Every structure is written in structure tokens, then in C-alpha cells.
Amino acid sequence: MAFALRKRNSGKRVSARTAGMVAALTVGASLLTAPQALADSDPGPVNLLKACDWASLCKFHPQSYWTYTGPRHKVGDVLFNCGSQTNSTAVTWEDTTSSSNSAGISTSLEYKFLDAFEAEIQTSYSHTWSRSHTDRQMTTVNVPRRGVGWIERGVGKQQATGWWEIQFKKRYYGHFDWYVYNYKESGWRSTYGYINTKDRAMTSGEWNQHCR
Length: 212
Description:
alpha+beta; 5-stranded antiparallel sheet
């Protein structure tokens, strides 16, 4: 994630000679104290987004939005059928999907920028954003004789990208205006998901472990 800043014009005029001297001094100072200078002048995307809690403006500018199916994964218990006939078992399972963002900030906490993001997605794309969603369901799995059965799921998800405009009444790390670019967040979506039941033959090791 990249970020940039813009200083407000102070209205003072600086001669070419004076400007050259200032630039030279600045370069010299940054070379001598580069680590500390960078630390003092660079709040980073995480601090900037958290600072939205008290900033005078915290606005998300969306650039793209799409829905997709997340990676497949198992839910519920894995079943082993040691019998000689197909066995049907009702499996109760639950699966929680939490949203995540490219800044690595937890969405389980309350931050103003998360509210601003969700409001802008609703306004721009007419979609509701959920920070966390849990599905609970009962699914019947038919496991053939000497077989293994399980439930496989792909969660419907949504993702949005864009950039942030953040303004402060007082200078923050030396500037009034900051921008956070290449922001991305993904979360749960009610559509585009699927649930499948799967089975295969039991291995000899599994037979010895579960059926003897």
C-alpha cells in the first residue's frame, strides 16, 4: 500500500538562492539522520487510517468492486463408514467469514475508517458490507461402504479497492492532508457461495485407525 501527502501553501515566497540552500541543508540532514527523519515524517498507512477517529475528514474513494467465490475448504466433521452399506449422516456445522484489508488492521475493532468504508460501498454500489458473518447449517452426507465423507464449501465474497483522503485541522507528521492509495478490503457476500458433499475410499491406514 502506498501513501502520499500534500503540504498546504504557506503563501511565503523564497528566492532561488535561499531555496537552493534549504534543499541542500535538507538533503544533508536526511543523509545524516535518515532513519530517524523517515520515522518522524512517515506515519504509515496503519497510523493514518486509525487517525481517522479524530481527523477532520476521512473519505474513501472507491475505484473497483466485484464479487467472487472464496477458496474451497472443509466444514463440519469428517465421517468414516466402517460398515458394508452406504451410511447417511446429518452433520451440523458452522463457518465464520471475517473481512480483511490490505492494511492488516483488525475489522473486529471499532474504527471510524471502517464505518466510512462501509458507508461508501453502500452509496456507490448499493451493497451492504459485513465485517463478520457466521453460517450455521445441517447437511446430510452419504458415505459409501468403507469410505470417507465430508462437506466442502466455497464462501461467497466481495472485494473493493480505492484510496483514502484524510485531512487534519492541525499538522499531523508535519502535514494537514494525507492520502492512502491501493487500499483493498474483502468480506462475506450472500451470493456466489456453494456447499458440496464429497467422498472417497478409505485408505488402509484410516481403516486400521477408525474401524479396528
